[in-house]
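idk why but the lab printer keeps eating my pages so im just putting this in chat instead. protein + zinc ion:
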Amino acid sequence: MNLLQDLVIASRVCADHGVIDAYGHVSVRSADCPDRYWMSRAVAPELITEADLVELDLDSNAIMDKPPALYNERFIHGEIYKLRPDVNAIVHNHSHAVIPFSCSNCRLRPLFHLAAFIGQGVPTWDIREAQRGSDMLVRNAMLGQSLARKLGPHPAALMRGHGSVVVGATLPIALGRTIYLDHNARMQAQTLQLANDPDEVVYLDDEEVQALSWQAYARSWDLWQTQWTPRLAAEAALRASQPVA
Ligand SMILES: [Zn+2]
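predcted complex ->
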């Protein structure tokens, strides 16, 4: 497994699914140094290559001299890695389908099997719990810690009026949960429009959620990796063939 290439692929997949656009980011914990993690410098995820990736410590400082501009919200990642030793990959995104559930009393619930993890609990974090009058961005460790504490042991947390953070023991799990959280939100909104009585919508029950706790999105990951590996190789060949300006 090439962790850095996989991080590029995960970023591209999120962009391809419209879960991330110019904003949002994916990270992975370093394989040989668990108190560090990798994420891109501040660039749109759809444009990321391996050359953009930077290693950071858990205080979200880059491990290099003269680092490039980094994402303002990198503290989301560092503070979650500190509190959750079981987490090795994180996606922060602004999915338009998910945000309505962050700022209403309509709770996101597991509607279909690929999003069963929602049944493990997806709390909503309001940045005002930590700071009033913010610009909504997780710009420092204090805000990152507050979000990480709200996430607790759960697979994801919504961020009121902003987006969500999704975690996993592996990159395929964090990525699969991110994509299917977005799908579940779309389908739940559709179902609630179709239903005569919202109380009669049938969600996965706790036993089904438990029975699906093995879900690791291996086949989804295999598909995404197979699709993106040749595309990234073609892009790299094109870049190499172009004269340096
Ligand atoms: Zn954000």
